[in-house]
Description:
Layout: H1 7-27, E1 29-33, E2 44-48, H2 54-62, E3 68-72, H3 73-76, H4 80-88, E4 91-93, H5 100-111, E5 116-118, H6 136-144, E6 147-154, H7 159-164, E7 170-175, H8 189-208
Parallel strand pairs: 1-7, 2-5, 2-6, 3-4, 3-5
Antiparallel strand pairs: 6-7
Helix pairs in contact: 1-2, 6-8
Amino acid sequence: MEFRPPLFNRIARFFGVPFFRGLLYLLTRPTVEGLENVPHYGAYMIVANHLATVDPAMTILLWPHHPEGLAAANQMETLFPGFLMRLYGPVPVHRGEYDRAVLEKALSIFRSNRPVFIMPEGTRSRKPGMQQANPGAAYMAIKANVRIVPVGITGTEAVTDHWKRWRCPRLTMKIGQPFELPPLPSTSRDVRHRHLEECTLLIMKRIAELLPVEYRGVYA
């Protein structure tokens, strides 16, 4: 069955994304590099490092079109950030839990030739330095057989501190070239598990290549 966002979310995106993009440019100084690497059409996965709450919003607002997203379910239940997230309409994900329904929903989005945005670390680091990623993104990309577009984000970890001092923070979003993962081998569970670990490492290395050394953390 083809995936189509609910009408309410489509309307909210149509009016809300331009408004909040303007607000982002008013309150920060964002720079985007590598827009030529964004596929013009079709299914692909967007992956990025996660420093602060503003990361997903900034990525979606600065992306050339409206990707679908996977978001932490507990964040969607918060008051103001959760309200904005529900307006956009991401797929809720419960951290640390395997949810077959989430996987099927993501696969249906890919089959509908739409991109999906996910942050493999699962939670924000709140400071420069990437954390160990979960294998979920790699598994989804392999199952859907889609390209992966890496994104490196810097500056968002200091947004609140800058605003407290009435300063306009500089944010950077660098988009890398799309790449693909090798398929899962049809062998033992241990071999498949190691393959997913290697693919996850590859994803995070591609993100790390877009970041300054001090932002690479465990993937330096």
